[in-house]
Design brief:
The structure is a homodimer. In chain A, α1 packs across α3, α2 runs antiparallel to α3 and α6 packs parallel to α8. Chain A folds into 2 domains: 172 residues, Acetylglutamate kinase-like (Carbamate kinase, 3-Layer(aba) Sandwich); 162 residues, VC0802-like (2-Layer Sandwich), CATH 3.30.2130.10. By secondary structure, chain A is α/β, with parallel strands linked by helices. Chain A has 13 helices and 20 strands. In chain A, the strands form 5 sheets. The first copy, chain A, has an 8-stranded mixed beta sheet with strand order 3-6-2-1-9-11-12-10, with helices on both faces. In chain A, strands 13-18-20-19 form a 4-stranded antiparallel beta sheet, with helices on both faces. In chain A, a hairpin with a 5-residue loop joins β7 and β8. The first copy, chain A, is 36% helix and 26% strand. The interface between A and B is large, with 37 and 37 residues.
Chain lengths: 405, 405
């Protein structure tokens, strides 16, 4: 008899029929004798509709009121789910953010969870109730509604699982788990049985959309095992857990890619202290997040500085840097939107050498030129021309023996 | 500088454009220097859509969860209104039932307000904020969401006005006020400048749909002046206030009708103690509300008992009474759905005689047969054949000199 926290995303509860299917799955766990706490997202499309409604009244809607508005999405789903379960004869009750007491800071639209109330949920579980909790929402110190940002229901689920000391947090989604690569472009990609928190963090930050990155940080911090699986079948998915000996034996666990970045290079920058900082502060002050940064030294006290920004911010960043280039006396600013980042991730890298060399040679063998390189302890990323993305992913997937059964 | 509580119904906030229009009207009051507290209903149609959604999951949805679901309607409107006002440059903030602390009993779907928290609203008013409150919703002792039943936003508004000791509670609707009769069938009907709480209570219970009856009870109890007016123009509407000398001079303030009832008669009932009670208890136990009751004595220890029930309950009530008739030895049960109730209402009746006689003779002059009569201190109602309804209303409107300027 375990305490299971489940989370179902918007596509899993998109209409009354799917809500009934999810209700059956919840009932199954309850029938097996488990204590069930279920976190739900808004029905697919609802959040976008609410945003559209708000934009008709205000170009930049008041953030506090936006959260009041968006929170209705999850409120609707939990009420409907509790009704569906009650109709099936199961004792279910919904709880909203303020009823659980999901306490957050006051950052409307991107609030961070500070504390989770346990008593109300535990009382209901003691009464043998199935507890259905609205994800994505919390309250601040004054009882104002806050929301956690896109994908925040994942974080709600993991935080509640941590607070309740749950045996597992099952995240139900429309894919079957975490794969060695995107199956859409790499047909030989395989579902991973398990992956470490650190690897999952790298994968999430590299654009794998299975889990919200903050939920993984939470899971790592409180050591909550996450089971990522599909709500449309009964297959076992991927366990996201603490690193173990097995994982170290595998050099690379997965290959990811990200086409959402663009490159900006300032050529022939005077190589003086503080210049790099000036270049990067200019975009940072405008709220533009810089990812990879590389500086090459040229002859004659000159240097080239290259960095990447999100494609959506490319035009704005280019304008800023053209101004900066004039000020610091750089020769030119060039940009390129047609790039991609391919990465290999694996905790095994810590104890295995030669991973980078193998990555570079694999790409070279396919005549793929590497524009930029960045690394972390368990990740190597290469910026390449966008058109080679799929080829690169498949080549790396094969080179690191992920194609094998 | 007054404290004004305003309430806008669903048609007044049915779409973004109307929300903007209402925002302008609220801003007007604020610009005049008043403290503004605004109670809103759900956008027209939204509540029905939510009920439809729930019915797809459960024939008789769990009442607690139904209230969680329905409360999203008002939550949406208050967020949008606060955004609209903020966009126009006014400091507005929404509050939900749990944030105000609208404490109710636990009767989901038809909860009664027990207590209204004042502090949160007063703090915001002190900060010169416009306070936008979700109507229709409250919370019980445990913080569960409750709703007040159809039209409950009127009651929310009056209760909040009472708690804050507001100068006036303005109820904005799609009509211009309270009329001497339904203008749709009585072209000479006039808008009343004022009407007493007691008269309004009688009118509301007789089917005039301008105000929810419980809101008038509240207003009377706490002596909150209500101003019923249109949200689509700037006209002065009708003041619902404590009785004054002027009102007593008018014998009849209004003529109303109600086509929602049906008549049931048990013929030749043995005239024994407890028989009437047995007949009426049978339907009462099934939750059917009986309105007019008349008993006529026949010769030979027999009596006829007639009563009216809502038309929607007619078939069910007939079946019940056919069973009762057998048990008590009544000769027959006959029913009639084609009846209507016409009523004259006025506090002046208390001090004027001959009102009933005038009513009966006016109807007789038009050859309208009176089937049943019932009276209160300030009302006389006649049940007549439904087809004569409009004729009767116009005849009474003229007879009691309501046609005059």
């Amino acid at each position: 008899m375990s305490l299971i926290v489940q989370k179902y995303g918007g596509t899993s509860v998109a209409n009354p029929e799917r809500i009934q299917n999810v209700a059956k799955r919840i009932a199954q766990g309850y029938n097996e004798g488990h204590s069930m706490v279920v976190i739900l997202s808004a029905m697919a499309g609802v959040t976008d509709n609410l945003i559209h409604l708000a934009k008709q009244l205000s170009k930049e809607p008041d953030r506090r009121e936006m959260d009041v508005l968006l929170a209705t999405g999850e409120q609707t789903t939990v009420a409907l789910m509790a009704m569906a379960l009650t109709e099936m004869g199961y004792p279910a009750q919904s709880l909203l953010g303020y009823q659980v007491e999901v306490k957050t800071n006051e950052a409307y639209g991107r609030a961070r969870i500070m504390k989770i109330g346990k008593n109300r949920i535990k009382d209901l579980l003691n009464d043998k109730k199935i507890v259905i909790v609205a994800g994505f929402q919390g309250i601040d110190e004054l009882g104002n509604i806050t929301t956690l940002g896109r994908g925040g229901s994942d974080t709600s689920a993991v935080a509640i699982a941590a607070a309740l000391n749950a045996d597992v947090c099952e995240i139900y989604t429309d894919v079957e788990g975490v794969y060695t690569a995107d199956p859409n472009i790499c047909p030989k990609a395989k579902k991973l049985n398990k992956i470490s928190f650190d690897e999952m963090l790298e994968m999430a930050s590299l654009g794998a959309k299975v889990l919200q990155i903050r939920s993984v940080e939470f899971a790592k911090k409180y050591n909550v095992p996450i089971h990522v699986r599909s709500s449309f079948n009964q297959e076992i998915g991927t366990m996201v857990i603490n690193e173990d000996k097995d994982m170290e034996r595998v050099v690379v666990s997965g290959v990811t890619y990200n086409k959402n970045e663009a490159r900006i290079t300032l050529n022939k920058v005077p190589d003086q202290p503080g210049i790099a900082s000036k270049i990067l502060k200019a975009v940072g002050d405008e709220g533009i997040i810089v990812d990879v940064i590389i500086q090459n030294t040229r002859a004659g006290g000159l240097t080239d500085l290259t960095f990447t920004v999100p494609k959506t911010e490319f035009n704005r960043a280019m304008k800023i840097e053209e101004q900066v280039a004039k000020e610091i006396g750089a020769e030119s600013v060039v940009g390129d939107e047609e790039i991609a980042k391919v990465s290999v991730v694996g905790v095994g890298m810590r104890s295995h050498s030669g991973v980078a060399a193998k990555m570079f040679s694999s790409l070279a063998k396919e005549n793929i030129n590497i524009i930029l390189i960045s690394t972390s302890e368990i990740r190597i990323s290469c910026i390449i021309e966008e058109k080679f993305t799929e080829l690169a992913v498949r080549a790396l997937h094969k080179a690191f023996e992920l194609d094998k059964e």
